[in-house]
Amino acid sequence: MKKTILTGAIACAIAPAFAENTPAIFDLGTIVVTATRTPTPVRELLNDISVITQEEIQRAGQTTLPELLRTLPGIEFSANGGAGTTSSVFIRGANDKHTLVLVDGMRINSATSGTTALEKIPLGQIERIEVLRGPGSALYGSEAIGGVIQIFTKSGNATPSFHLGGGAGSRGLYQANAGGNGKLGEVSFNLEVAHEGTDSFSAIGDPASSSYNPDSDPYRNTSANAKLSYRLNDRHEFGATGFYSNGKGHFDGSRTYDSRNNQTLAAYGFYSQDRFLPDWKSQIRIGRSFDDLRSLSTTTWTKFRTDQDQVSWQNDLETGAGRFTLGTEHNWQHVTSTTSYTVNKRAVHSYFAGYQGRFGAHSVQLNARNDDNSQFGSHATGSAAYGYQLTNAWRASASIGTAFRAPTFNELYYPNYGISTLRPERALNKEVGIHYDHAAQHVSLVYFDNQISDLINSGSVVSQTQRANITGATLSYNGRLEEFNVRASTTWQNPIDKSNNTILQRRAQQTATAGIDRSFGAWSAGMGVIASGYRYDKANNVNRLGGYTVFNLYSGYTYSKELSFVARLNNVFDKQYELAQTYNTPDRNVFIGFDYHPQ
Fold first, then answer.
1. pTM score of the predicted model
2. In the chain, which residues have pLDDT < 50?
């Protein structure tokens, strides 16, 4: 473990080293919406946020979405095998159910498991990703105790265009995608379709396991994304969006057979963006999302489906005193399953308000929200952040915020498991940060303290006696050194279960990620490393998982304006490690892909 962490620390110190899929220099003028619900330049934010760009996604090759997310500061993940198998993402040491995931502004999670199947969302459908670290319940409601991940699917361009892409790699991997987008008059459109598959590897690597079956566990995914909008004039726009992903995979069920699952994630909706007055912008969104999971074990199929009907209305008002945001959201969840739940539906009616103001060197952000849940009644959350520009390059920030998570249908009503009297989990997060931004150099140090009470233990028996206190700090760098683009970060954290003073399961106390890349005319090349300290697979610090360091290489070649190539070599030194006990992780593997945009 010491050697692993030392390697990670050195990686962050020298260069400051190598981050996977390193993009061009981070632009502080980049506009993000997740941190405030309104378009805001990164340089004006008081939150801890990261952005994954289209360039990074294109370089990811065969990397899955959870693997790509773990290259960001303060994010870890675990997986029960290869592509398409169950994954968990942890932001700043919080539980996987403490992460809210949005796709084009819509929730797409399972109300039974409480998580979003990120492993079933293919990178080929994604245009950009924004990750907010820290509590987001005052902005978005339940689940956002650790943070918020918002995924934006691909959109249309001004000039109509068509593209083809694909690639192949180790263990029978193949990818193919095609799409067209553009603008004709006042109509903008985009359509993307993709298919990928892999023979993968056997999920369980321990021959002593009763589920050990040393065959390959293949995975196939078919996905599509569509957008259509009409701009009536400078003040009114109407549109429709749709996202679909179906993943089919095998997983080890016993020594003699493979179990299978078939999971579909989808979201579709309609929106209207209106500027009724010069300083009043309004957006209405109506849509539905669903998560449909079907699993086969021997000859028995099980089904868990969550449907969510969602309506939101947000109003942004620009005034001389700052920007005010007022809105309401309504979410109706319905569960359909082969398992009988005593209650299978609930409604959540929410109202929120926000304020952003800048006064010379001072910045302020305030947010408040109330969620009225048909099962638990009203739950209010709030946050306050303050920033001060010390010099042209240095600025400081501090914030405090509350968050909560409503129990899942499994935790409440699953037969012989759930407890219908569970209370929502609650959290109080405090953080302070110092940031340096000058020319091409950007450095940030953020300290956080997240206290979680009424923590629900969803192990073999559901209980609500836990408390957790997660403290830590993240140091990150992004910039240019000579001709090289460099990114690096390291996180120290202490995710403690206060009921028995142990480390929360599958959470490391130290992680590091870093990278470097450079362009040479038509060529580009990069190198990345991810390092993690030891973790415990089970609660009460049982079954220790060793630390690890994984190196990856990337190369790109632009043949012409129409055709480009990418190649990746992942896990260069064939590191053997575990993210979950007894489960295998990818060994050394290669991917070669292309992208063709005819002019």
1. 0.93
2. 1-25
